[in-house]
From TrEMBL:
Keywords on record: Signal
Pfam families noted in UniProt: PDZ_CPAF_rel, Peptidase_S41
PANTHER family cross-referenced by the UniProt entry: PEPTIDASE S41 FAMILY PROTEIN, RHODANESE DOMAIN-CONTAINING PROTEIN
GO biological process entries: proteolysis
UniProt keyword annotation of Protein transport present: no
Limits of the CPAF-like PDZ domain: 167-295
Domain Tail specific protease: 367-577
Entry-linked SUPFAM superfamilies: ClpP/crotonase
Region forming the signal peptide: 1-18
Protein name: Tail specific protease domain-containing protein
GO MF annotation terms: serine-type peptidase activity
Gene3D superfamilies to which the protein is assigned, alphabetical: 2-enoyl-CoA Hydratase, Chain A, domain 1
UniProt KW Cell membrane keyword: no
Species of origin: Neocucurbitaria cava
Length: 756
């Protein structure tokens, strides 16, 4: 097989410097620690990282060296048994756990297959007993992929072996683009697209047709299935470099799953990856692992486990925490005010690039404003400024003569639930958001509800209560919180609990948020809700008519993003445009992420159970005592594990089917073009054309503009004239590539947020 120095040919410094592993990576390792050549698997990692022991620490390691070390950690069967036992109680809280075994036929046909999570845990238990796991990672990966195969971004358990020691990456990000917006999209390296647009590379960029010998679409569709989204076109998009994800810095999925962003960081990519291009040439890249932990004085998998795995007691973790961890430098891309690469300067800037207001600065688009919302906030400090952005931007846009509004929700994994309601009310003050939801009616939920309701009812429901009373009164488990679907108070916990039966499972009575509630700004992280309570004075007609608004997504719309889009599309009648998707001409969905409307971290559930016992001591003999006191699930997890606790239900829908299982096509589909991967304005123009222009072209199913057949696949990209604004955008993209570490530790929280 011929390999060539792709990087040199591409001639772009970006990739060379973004390449994490030095060119000497394929040379035999030198023994430089004075102990002779390291042979034990983890000693090789240690040696690679610390070299001659000077201050330079390499945190990116050839993938195969890391893999050998990780594979050397022996399986601890007793800890694995205890872990499976300790996470089972939390599975009961997953609102879809029963439906996942037997979902509606259309979901199975078009979205994802059925999955029996509890059966899968039983199987893992049996495999532990049978001695089937060859090492600790083998067990961890099985557990991880079992939960991940639910394709619910709120539902995740990432064991230590899968995410806490190494994460993985490939040095070359890819894009999937249609040359002209009509031809079927093909996969290119992102740097080819950059070079093509600079018109200064010495070759014609050619599409990737095979990866490691497998046909490109088969390879990519398989890899995409390791993502957290449910929709297959959205999963496919998430493999690639995309400006909206990049704009989120470390809280997005980086340069795409293929290069190790988002859930891609948990999938071992092999020692190398070989791309074959349509023009016949090939390129092999060396893959890498990242680590943020110390490997000093480590030789074997046992050494690694002793230091970094907390099998049960928590002692190992305590020891590790007492040491200074290696720190990885991460580009501070989410600092307020720093324009994201590929984006123009905002007209009104929001906090941390989580929301910005733009105009489309191009002839013919003078009437178009863009509210770009790649997140719904997960940090308290940003809540008030986030809400204020819409409040400031909408009247300004109207005053500046804008009559059309694009709401760009690309990359939006959610955030604060009530920000979704608030934004809807800012746009449509006269509409009453529905948003009904339910929990699984479990014994634990019932006991907690009885205890919380009894405790919280002792105190007057006023804003002046202390924090202990507030956390009880503002929780779902005080029946005074929330209201019925008919906007009436619940009369008792028994009424709120139900249970109601639907499609074979038992659920609590449907409830809705009481947006006027005295504790609403606690539940919202600090804002009052537009149109309610202190802001009840905000009334009047819609600021933009529904037909003058369009929602644009890349399918990566999850959690609070789906709450908002459900209200916008169902209640206000706003249309959607879905970008990208697999290389076909089919209609695709706009909303491809979890449509559950609230996630709980295991830790919050544990707190509920323990507080319920505090409020009602006689519960100390109940399952709340036996099931929710082990810390093992946290000690053995990479990031806080979580479940989706609330199903979202549609207004006037009597089927009892949660939104999560409904398949819905977007009103219009557009392919990404090369320009759109470096200049977001070109995407907004295409969206405006599709929705309002005469020249717009939806790939399929569009009710607007002209339809065009798209048969031909893009094989090579023809260099075109570069626009001035694009050149500026490109420079920023390059600067970002140089600084971006691909590390996507998620810093966002929020009660309706999906981890990337
Ligand atoms: C192409 O132009 C860009 C921007 O000026 C520059 O960074 C890059 O090095 C150039 N590439 C080649 C092959 O000349
Ligand atoms: C395996 O895990 C148990 C806890 O379940 C722990 O006591 C034991 O030390 C671990 N074994 C090894 C070899 O670390
Ligand atoms: C073939 O395409 C690849 C990928 O665009 C490119 O790097 C290479 O230079 C091309 N080879 C020739 C001979 O044009
Ligand atoms: C991807 O392909 C491999 C190899 O054929 C297979 O083992 C694996 O199950 C596939 N993964 C998914 C998510 O389809
Ligand atoms: C060998 O390596 C270990 C761990 O790095 C170190 O503690 C020890 O001092 C070394 N021995 C020699 C002879 O250098
Ligand atoms: C809050 O008020 C309740 C009821 O008066 C009381 O029992 C509790 O101790 C108070 N908690 C704090 C932290 O002050
Ligand atoms: C909503 O909360 C407000 C303020 O606490 C309260 O007056 C109202 O009765 C509640 N509405 C319902 C339906 O419970
Ligand atoms: C929300 O309303 C309350 C009651 O009027 C007020 O004290 C608080 O400052 C308001 N919050 C914000 C962020 O405006
Ligand atoms: C509504 O009332 C708030 C104070 O509660 C005030 O800040 C705001 O300007 C008012 N808005 C309108 C539209 O009257
Ligand atoms: C549900 O039905 C009511 C009453 O007919 C109607 O006002 C409302 O718009 C409907 N909602 C949706 C989402 O169709
Ligand atoms: C449970 O709480 C009761 C008081 O309600 C106490 O008498 C009893 O000893 C406790 N039992 C346990 C097992 O903690």
């Amino acid at each position: 097989m011929k390999t060539y120095t792709f990087l040199a040919l591409a001639g772009l410094t970006t990739l060379a410097t973004a390449t994490p592993i030095s060119p000497s990576r394929t040379q035999p390792l030198q023994a430089r620690q004075g102990n002779g050549t390291a042979t034990a698997p983890c000693a090789k990692v240690s040696q690679y990282m610390y070299g001659d022991g000077t201050t330079v620490v390499k945190q990116q390691i050839p993938a195969d060296i890391a893999w050998a070390c990780l594979s050397d950690v022996p399986f601890n069967a007793s800890s694995a048994k205890a872990l499976i036992k300790s996470i089972r109680p939390y599975m009961d809280w997953q609102s879809t756990i029963d439906v996942l075994k037997n979902p509606p036929a259309e979901y199975v046909e078009k979205v994802q297959p059925a999955i029996d999570i509890i059966g899968g845990l039983d199987k893992i238990d049996a495999d532990i007993d049978a001695g089937s796991f060859k090492n600790e990672y083998d067990f961890g990966w099985n557990l991880y992929t079992l939960i991940q195969s639910a394709h619910d971004g709120h539902f995740a358990y990432i064991p230590d072996s899968v995410g806490a020691i190494f994460t993985w990456g490939r040095p070359v990000p890819l894009v999937s683009v249609s040359e002209d917006g009509s031809k079927l999209p093909a996969v290119f390296t992102f740097d080819d697209v950059l070079g093509m647009q600079f018109k200064n590379i010495s070759y014609t960029p050619s599409a990737v047709v095979k990866i490691d010998g497998t046909e490109i679409t088969e390879y990519m569709e398989n890899l995409s299935q390791y993502g957290s989204l449910q929709d297959r076109d959205a999963l496919y998009n998430n493999l690639f470099y995309e400006l909206a994800q990049v704009s989120l810095g470390i809280s997005g999925s980086g340069t795409g799953m293929f290069s190790g962003g988002g859930r891609g960081r948990y999938v071992y990519p092999g020692v190398s990856t070989t791309l074959k291009f349509a023009n016949g040439s090939e390129y092999t890249m060396q893959n890498y692992a990242r680590t943020t932990i110390s490997f000093r004085n480590m030789a074997t998998g046992e050494d690694l486990a002793a230091k970094w795995f907390s099998w049960g007691t928590g002692e190992a973790q305590a020891q590790a925490e007492s040491e200074t961890p290696e720190t990885i430098s991460i580009a501070d891309t989410d600092a307020a005010g720093a324009a994201a690469p590929g984006y123009p300067a905002p007209v009104v800037a929001g906090p941390q690039n989580l929301i910005n207001g733009f105009y489309v600065d191009a002839p013919g688009y003078e009437d178009v404003a863009v509210l770009q919302v790649p997140n719904f906030v997960g940090s308290t400090a940003a809540e008030v400024p986030f809400q204020r952005l819409t409040r400031d931007f909408i009247p300004k846009a109207l005053a500046d003569g804008k009559t059309k509004l694009i709401i760009d929700l690309q990359a939006n994994g959610g955030g604060t639930i009530l920000q979704g309601y608030d934004m809807f009310k800012q746009l449509f003050p006269e509409l009453d958001p529905y948003g009904a939801n339910r929990y699984r009616a479990t014994e634990a939920a019932d006991l907690i509800g009885q205890s919380y309701s009894a405790y919280a009812s002792q105190f007057e429901r006023v804003s002046s209560v202390n924090s202990t009373v507030l956390q009880a009164q503002a929780s779902y488990f005080d029946y005074h919180n929330d209201m019925t679907v008919d906007e009436k108070p619940f009369s008792s916990w028994e009424e709120k609990f139900g249970p109601q039966e639907a499609n074979g499972d038992k659920y609590t009575t449907l409830n809705r948020w009481n947006l006027s509630d005295v504790h609403i700004s606690y539940s919202s992280g600090g804002i009052n809700i537009t149109g309610y309570g202190p802001l009840a004075n905000v009334t009047g007609p819609a600021k933009f008519k529904p037909e003058n608004i369009v929602i644009v997504t890349d399918g990566y719309c999850a959690s609070t993003c789906t709450i908002f889009s459900e209200l916008m599309t169902q209640q206000a009648g706003v249309k959607t445009i879905a970008m990208g998707g697999r290389s076909n001409k089919n209609k695709i969905q706009a909303i491809g992420g979890v449509k559950g409307v609230n996630n709980y971290q295991f830790g919050y559930i544990q707190q509920l159970a323990q507080y319920a016992i505090r409020y009602t001591p006689s519960l100390n003999t109940s399952i709340l005592k036996t099931d929710y006191y082990s810390d093992l699930p946290y000690n053995r997890a990479t990031i806080s594990p979580g479940v989706n606790v609330r199903d979202g239900l549609r207004q006037n829908d009597t089927s009892g089917v949660a939104l999560q299982f409904k398949y819905e096509e977007a009103n219009c589909r557009l392919y990404y073009t090369p320009e759109m991967t470096v200049d977001i304005t070109s995407l907004w123009k295409a969206a405006a054309d599709a929705q309002w222009g005469n020249s717009g072209k939806c790939v399929s199913g569009g009710n607007y503009g002209q339809k065009r057949e798209a048969h031909e696949v893009t094989a090579n990209l023809r260099p075109r004239r570069i626009q001035v604004s694009q050149a500026t955008a490109l420079k920023k993209v390059q600067a970002f590539e140089n600084s971006f570490s691909l590390e996507t530790e998620c810093k966002m929280t929020g009660d309706g947020f999906m981890h990337p």
